[in-house]
Amino acid sequence: MSESLKSRIQEEMKIAMRAREKERVGTTRLIMSEIKQIEVDQRIELDDSQVIAVLDKMLKQRRDSISQFEKAERDDLVAKERAEVEIIQTFLPTQLTEAEIIDLIRAAVSETGAESARDMGKVMGILKPQLQGRADMKAVSGLVKSQLG
Fold it and tell me: Is 110 helix (H, G, I), strand (E, B) or coil?
């Protein structure tokens, strides 16, 4: 059995500590504390799909922060957030291409019989588990809207 995503993150943190990679250590610690917080609050052990959901949420927060910092012209903070995004993405499955995402959207649209923007919830309901951690859901949402016209 392959190692869990959580143990891979812990291992990466140890490697980064030995190599004295301050940014990587900080980001992996943030990830581990986020995971630990959920495990303690809900009294559960997170599996890989739940860890991916946590990482996805962290990515979304970083992307939102980047756009806010860009508006405020805080290039120092933009750079810090971008560095964290890159590190978080190393633990996620490979990102899908736009063409692959569009194929999945078309399949979901035909499966649900969606015809207009009102049916967007049905389509997103099918897509979210397939795309979790493999695509920016905000971008996917825009693609679904354009497909549904």
Answer: helix
Q: What is the pTM of this model?
A: 0.82
Q: What is the pLDDT of residues 85-118, one digit of tens each?
A: 999 999 998 889 999 999 999 999 999 998 888 9
- Would you tell me which CATH number, out of the four given (3.20.20.70, 1.10.238.10, 3.20.170.30, 1.10.10.410), belongs to the domain 98-148? 1.10.10.410
**CATH, range 5-89:** 1.10.1510.10
Cα torsion at 10, 14, 15, 17 (round to 10°)?
130
Residue 71 near residue 82, CB atoms below 8 Å: no
